[in-house]
Amino acid sequence: MIKKISIAIVEDFVRFRKGLIMAFEQYREEINILFDAEHGADMIGQINTGKFPDVILMDLQMPVMDGIETTKWLHANHPEIKIIILTTHTDERFIRHMLEIGAHGYLFKNEEPSLIKAAIVEVLDKGYSINLMVEGILKNSLTKTGNSPLLLK
Q: Would you list the DSSP string of 41-78?
């Protein structure tokens, strides 16, 4: 029997969070949603009770403790937990910054659940997941700044 992947969803928009939970119901044989949280401080409370997901899907903009501070905290305190940012922010600066501070993947909220699931698996297999849209944004940015795109090969 293959071990189920344990995930957590950290998202302040309740309808989106609950919708994502419902969408992942189709993968219940492979993925277990260990907990969901409204913001980073809520997530820390869950982790402090001994709930350690393999992967966290996390929004950037949240009250109390946002995705940036939460990613920094996770990277410093639980580097074994993989982080996939799930947001509407397409700005290259956000993407680059989140990957620099410890995120393992960056997805947009309009992704199909199957692509989010694939990213979860990829992060656990490879240590990172970059979809084509994010890769294109980063390549465009590197081309404009004159930096080498070797990072993305």
A: HHHHHHHHTT---SEEEE-S--SSS-HHHHHHHHHHH-
Tokens of 3: 């071990």
Looking only at the bridges linking them, the beta strands covering 31-37 and 5-10 are parallel
Please tell me the pTM assigned to this model. Answer: 0.85
Neighbours of 96 (CB within 10 A): 16
- Residue pair 129/84 in contact by the 8 Å Cβ criterion: yes
Residue 63, both tokens: 């009250």
Both tokens of residue 150?
């070797």
For 46-73, what is each residue's pLDDT tens digit?
A: 999 999 999 999 999 999 999 999 999 9
| Beta-strand pair 129-130/105-108 | parallel
| Cα 75 from Cα 94, distance rounded (Å) | 17
Q: Are 115 and 2 in contact (CB under 8 A)?
A: no
pLDDT for res 137: 64
